[in-house]
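Narrative summary of target 7.
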Amino acid sequence: MLRAAFESVGLFLLPFLLFAFYLVLRLRYPLEVEHWTQGRVARLTLVGLVLALAGLIAFGFMQRRAKGVYVPAHMENGVLIPGHIE
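Modeled conformation, tokenized:
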């Protein structure tokens, strides 16, 4: 679950990082307020949300699913048998 959250946050921040990198390539200081107007930030936010949502959907469909019956952890002859799928 934590991995999915980090992936979504990373995909959301990707447009902001790419825009800052673009400003650096153009030899502009990326932390100046004049580069981060309300319209640009709104567009970057929308692109980031679309990327994060697309990532969640794509990772959800590509995730490997186990087929079978889950057997919970139990004790057999004093030995703990971990949970597994049969």
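The radius of gyration is 22 Å.
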